[in-house]
Amino acid sequence: MALRELKVCLLGDTGVGKSSIVWRFVEDSFDPNINPTIGASFMTKTVQHQNELHKFLIWDTAGQERFRALAPMYYRGSAAAIIVYDITKEDSFQTLKNWVKELRQHGPPNIVVAIAGNKCDISDAREVPEKDAKDYADSIHAIFVETSAKNAININEVFIEISKRIPVADAVAETPGRGFKLGRQASESRRMCC
Amino acid sequence: MNEEYDVIVLGTGLTECILSGIMSVKGKKVLHMDRNPYYGAESASITPLEDLYKRFNLPGNPPESMGKGRDWNVDLVPKFLMANGQLVRMLLITQVTRYLDFKVIEGSYVYKGGKIFKVPSTETEALSSSLMGIFEKRRFRNFLIFVANFDENDPKTLEGIDPHKTSMRSIFQKFKLGQDVIDFTGHSLALYRTDDYLDLPCNEAINRIKLYSESLARYGKSPYLYPLYGLGELPQGFARLSAIYGGTYMLNKPIEEIIVENGKVVGVKSEGEIARCKQLICDPSYFKDRTKKIGQVIRVICVLSHPIQNTGDINSCQIIIPQNQVSRKHDIYVCMISFAHNVAAQGKYIAIASTTVETDNPEKEIKPALDLLEPIDQKFVSISDLLVPTDSGTDSQIFLSRSYDATTHFETTCDDIKNIYQRMTGTEFDFTEMERKQQDIFGDAAE
Ligand SMILES: Cc1cc2nc3c(=O)[nH]c(=O)nc-3n(C[C@H](O)[C@H](O)[C@@H](O)COP(=O)(O)OP(=O)(O)OC[C@H]3O[C@@H](n4cnc5c(N)ncnc54)[C@H](O)[C@@H]3O)c2cc1C
Ligand SMILES: Nc1nc2c(ncn2[C@@H]2O[C@H](COP(=O)(O)OP(=O)(O)OP(=O)(O)O)[C@@H](O)[C@H]2O)c(=O)[nH]1
Ligand SMILES: [Mg+2]
């Protein structure tokens, strides 16, 4: 079965649950005492989509976004971006719109955008109506779901929706501009380069 | 930012970002700021193209023929990585390489008598090269075989010479190599910038040629590598490393003052706030008073709509014009990359010519290189001062990096990094210092 590597990056305010979503998706667990992210940066998980395997290379921000110093490298070559807000924090929904603008400016042109309204398990404290978010997502043609990393609601679904929206692999059109990763062994690099 | 840090770093050039990464990995609390809204400082790749036009004060916008501005990532300082070089080692040890994709530069050329020739670096290539006559070829081939077998610790391979005494000039004489062959061997294989090496013991030169061949052997076409999206990806990669280890990043921060008390740095003031620190690393532009000018480099960025003539239409290459060929003291370099590296719009090429300035008419000095590139769609000329620190930092704890020099490689940059590291910590730089120390990338094992 063909394996495709798909880079996915996470964006959103601090504390909205980006790392928790990744953690739930990759490890199927939840840590209520998770720390603001420094350290975690990169996780992978492979899922099947039709007759392909999609290996998600998931980039979590490393704190650079806190002072608006996210490097363009972060978006480079991303197949998809998941922008997360916290349904109990109106502010986090407002900054989401800035992330969308930022992506338009610096992200790849055909990037798939998914909007995740996280912490839907505590909808008593809700500040952002689901419909507002859904309307906004529709207006920018983004995937939209409300999620809970805590109760494992809609987490896998986000990635399934992303898989569906990734254009079918076109082996011929993909070649230009492809490089290789440096490896410790020369022979390996050579194998990958050609 | 009203806090106390171990190290504050100003400027996000490659040198600063690598040092920032090393310090964060070592557990230091690092604050890293740049006055510009982008990463890379002098070693940035400028995007979109409109910004390059502004930076060079060209009137108006780029013409439509240049394609989409966002497709461009134009390096300010042209350099390549040696496949077996120190920078590659740093990338591998820190695993920053996982953030980057590379391509091999497709060919290396040398200038002779107004024309360019592929640099022959293997026996087979030497024998088919049009750079040399038939007898010269045989002699050069013998020389290459000697170099390949050369092992300073194995007398059988030395053919009676003393690696630490015999001069390189005598080695060339021993193999009866002519001036042209000496020129390209010294400047395109051993990569010397001047001819001073000729009268030094041959050990270093021979080992440089060996390294060239070994780097070449890794990828086949040339010993040089280039990262997709431009060299500006390198500082960004190391900045991410630093951030992963807790480094704090701020761009677009005007630096109002570097605060020094009793001769020692205590902090940095930006937008009215003071961040305190024990040590400061910065590029020369943040503290010009403590630098001196040792020369100038001219760099001419040229946008082309065609590959360089006589290179067989390849989309990346390096050309070295040995100083002898154009009656100069310093070599002239051309680095060419293209749309194939995601640094230019479809069908466009970027060739950057550079050299150390020797006269008061630098544009004339660099003309032999530009003549090889014609027709040129657009030129961007810069002449930059080469600044070096006058303050070693011993007392002030302020550590300034050097400007990027005319060499089109990272050797001197890596040396500068090791040197600053030593001055900051009092211990010699060891590559393993950079090794990631925590379980920072879970889920990423078994590739
Ligand atoms: C256009 C062009 C011009 C160059 N001009 C010069 C020049 O004028 N002077 C110069 O010294 N280098 C020159 N170089 C090559 C440069 O040495 C290498 O590109 C390389 O050093 C950069 O790799 P690095 O920064 O990854 O590691 P480096 O730190 O540069 O390399 C690791 C070690 O290998 C040594 N080394 C690097 N390259 C060679 C080589 N080819 N042969 C033998 N030993 C080597 C270095 O001295 C160093 O100690 C040039 C390269 C290019 C592409
Ligand atoms: N109730 C609830 N809490 C959640 C959910 N997801 C995350 N949290 C909590 O929200 C807090 C922040 O979660 P993180 O995953 O660290 O958020 P982040 O977006 O990665 O934050 P930064 O790394 O600081 O940018 C933690 O206390 C989590 O336990 C959720 O679905 N429901
Ligand atoms: Mg996080």
TrEMBL record, chain A:
PROSITE patterns named in the record: RAB, RAS
UniProt xrefs under NCBIfam families: small_GTP
Pfam families (UniProt xref): Ras
CDD domains found in the cross-reference section: Rab5_related
Domain of life: Eukaryota
InterPro entries xref list: P-loop_NTPase, Small_GTP-bd, Small_GTPase
Gene Ontology MF, one: GTP binding
Protein name in the entry: Ras-related protein Rab-22A
Subcellular location: Cytoplasmic vesicle, Phagosome membrane; Early endosome
Coiled coil location: none
Recorded topology in the membrane: Lipid-anchor
Family assignment from sequence similarity: Belongs to the small GTPase superfamily. Rab family.
Organism the protein comes from: Gouania willdenowi
Keywords of the record: Cytoplasmic vesicle, Endosome, GTP-binding, Lipoprotein, Membrane, Nucleotide-binding, Prenylation
Cellular-component GO terms for this entry: early endosome; phagocytic vesicle membrane
UniProtKB/TrEMBL annotation, chain B:
GO cellular component annotations of the record: Golgi apparatus; membrane
Primary subcellular site in the record, as a coarse category: cytoplasm
SUPFAM superfamilies from the UniProt entry: FAD/NAD(P)-binding domain
Annotated InterPro entries: FAD/NAD-bd_sf (IPR036188), GDP_dissociation_inhibitor (IPR018203), RabGDI (IPR000806)
Localization annotation: Cytoplasm; Golgi apparatus, trans-Golgi network; Membrane
Keyword terms of this UniProt record: Acetylation, Cytoplasm, Golgi apparatus, GTPase activation, Membrane, Phosphoprotein
Subunit structure: Interacts with RHOH. Interacts with the GDP-bound inactive forms of RAB3A, RAB3B, RAB3C, RAB5A, RAB5B, RAB5C, RAB8A, RAB8B, RAB10, RAB12, RAB35, and RAB43; binds RAB3D to a lesser extent. Interacts with DZIP1; this interaction negatively regulates the interaction of GDI2 with GDP-bound RAB8A.
Protein name per UniProt: Rab GDP dissociation inhibitor
Species: Gouania willdenowi (Blunt-snouted clingfish)
